[in-house]
Design brief:
Layout (H helix, E strand, L loop, with lengths): L4 E6 L3 H7 L34 E2 L6 E5 L16 E2 L1 E3 L16 E6 L18 E2 L5 E4 L2 E6 L4 E7 L3 E7 L3 E9 L2 E2 L2 E2 L2 E8 L2 E8 L15 E9 L5 E6 L16 H8 L2 E4 L3 E4 L2 E9 L4 E9 L3 H11 L5 H16 L8 H13 L5 E2 L6 E3 L5 E3 L6 E2 L3 H4 L3 H8 L1 H17 L9 E2 L2 E2 L7 H11 L7 H15 L16 H11 L1 H16 L10 E3 L17 E3 L4 E8 L11 E6 L6 E12 L4 E8 L11 E5 L7 E4 L3 E4 L2 E8 L2 E6 L2 E4 L3 E4 L16 E3 L10 E2 L1 E4 L1
Helix pairs in contact: 7-8, 8-9, 9-10
Length: 722
Amino acid sequence: MKRLIVVYLLFISLNVLNAWAQKSPADYVNPIIGATTADEMAGSDHGLGKTFPGVCTPFGLVQLSPDTKTGGDNGPGYSWHHSTIEGFSFTHMSGIGWYGDLGNFLVMPTTGELHTFKGTEENPESGYRSRYSHDREVAKVDGYSVMLDDYGIQVELAAASRSGMMRFTYPQSEVSRIQIDLARRIGGTSTEQYVEVVDDYTIKGWMKCTPDGGGWGDGAGQGNYTAYFYCCFDRPLKNFGLWSADIPEGVERKNASNDDPAYHEYIKNAHVFPRKKIAQGKHLGFYTEFSTREGEQALLKCGISFVSIEGARKNLQSDISDWNFDGVRQRARRQWNEALSGVQVEGEEKDKTIFYTSLYHTMIDPRCFSDVDGAYPGADGKVHYADNFIYRTIFSGWDVFRSQFPLQTITNPRLVDDEINSLIQLAELSGKKYFPRWEFLNAYSGCMVGNPAVSVVADAYNKGIRNYDTRKALEYSLNTVRTFGNNEQGYTPDDFSKVPEETMKLAKVKSGYEQSKSQYELTKRETEHATLVAPFDGIVANLFSKPYNLANTSEAFCTVIDTRGMETDFTVLENELAFIKTGDKVMITPYAGGGSYEGSVSEINPLVDANGMVKVKAAVNGQGKLFSGMNVRVSVKRSLGEQLVIPKTAVVLRSGKQVVFTLKEGKAMWNYVHTGLENATEYVVSDKSQGGVEDGLLEGDTVIVTGNLNLAHETEVTISGE
């Protein structure tokens, strides 16, 4: 197939670029909004949101962000009113009202003397922390950057789903460094760490975080997890080492220790071990040193897992296989634009910023908790695999059941399926058999009141979101209500032993408890002996009967859809009919996202309708992820021989005629063309080398594809890239 040389036109005037630039939803997101924990900032444009300003992907496992303070009521690790930065870690909580957690794998680029202690806000020189200015801080949905004033180092962050990359631009220095504090944890410390140098470019290890080390609610939330890492550097590890602090038995290691001068002394006096390749201890760190020229860059990339080191390695390999930092940013930007584009709004620019930033904050949690291969840490302490959903965590049921999740049922029903599946697994594997009110990494935090998860399940079920075990969802919902509900007397089940016997008898009579219990037992028995079995495996749809209600025998009970043997209907133009035949391979891509599926043309209707269209059917294996009635895009690819093909953006209309500008001797040249066959991105265009063709292009012409809307004939242009 002939192809034209494509070049991009550099706008001569920045004003022209701004006038014609089209903003995408991601452009309106401002992660700085809400990124403060100070009450006095709540009345400003930032808001008291307790969010982080760094980068992540929609519902991703990692969140790379700067950390300004480890201790205190500083749940996200960052607050806009702080003036120094401790480092940049790979995991963060967002928008919480309690003492925080995560902040694992804290990375800090430094120069000069090695410090094992982070330093204090009042005296950052006492450690590795650095001052910074908001004037040189940039937070965007796809990337974060800041200048560390004490070191003259620019830091840039980019995130993938389960991995992240950091880029550091150094000044000239004989001793430049990347150091990693493995003990660091927001709201406490990790209680034990392990690190190993794998080869000249790689380290791996883990950080064990238990309630004894503080964390979520200063230990009260029972946050108990191990974060695994697999980290690679773009330059060899030559001058490297470890440090280890001796923490005596019985020393408090919770949130207060972060501001305790006595605890600081243990860290300041840590032992440094140059060239040591492996260690396990209570407070470890790693460093690698090298000299740098002015403006020299160094990169680090790291995969995170809550399952295993091997899981972290697989996550990194899947997410970031090269060292293309800008490529990671671009992929994240595409993911966010796709996620945010589910809702389109009109209004003033400020209103769009507020809306899309708020929408962005609803797409951080409940985050992915499983690895790329589906492995996840179960609440029973064992590794399990999710093959038909993504296991998710950090579910503030109380804060989201009335706002975020009703929205997700409309914009992202698959996420709701994931969350309910995750809640069912949590209830089952923990042995509790009821849903948590506030879940954090498989922990039942116990904060808040009521039964918010039940509202989420009921809302989803009533809206037809049922890709989970509905019987278990009902069972655990009932158990949840019984465990945390309050009756008319104000007693909870935990207090039944304290209720006077006469009061209990009266309560049962007034509430109809015994009658309801009998009806429940009868219905339960009838349900157990009334099971419908489908003739094949599939997905149940149009199930409108409610539990414990009699079904209408004159209507179909439900519809069972075989998602493995599905058909999709689409149309083609009659002039394209010659290029398609039965058996041709097609790619089926749902507009809702979730990947593409291969199929083949199964039927071509031999009838052209009034609009010149022909109906075609294609068979496709939906792998259990396609649903009847979904809107999909169908791509049929066949070889058409040699044709001139150009991007659609190259074609502009002038006085109702199609025009393409070519580049010749530094000038834009006007060419009338005729377009023929097309796909989503390209046209077949008329070829002037063919006899009798006057309007068209020639093979080898250089075509201008951007910046061509206002071009005139023989305008001088500048090539910006090829």
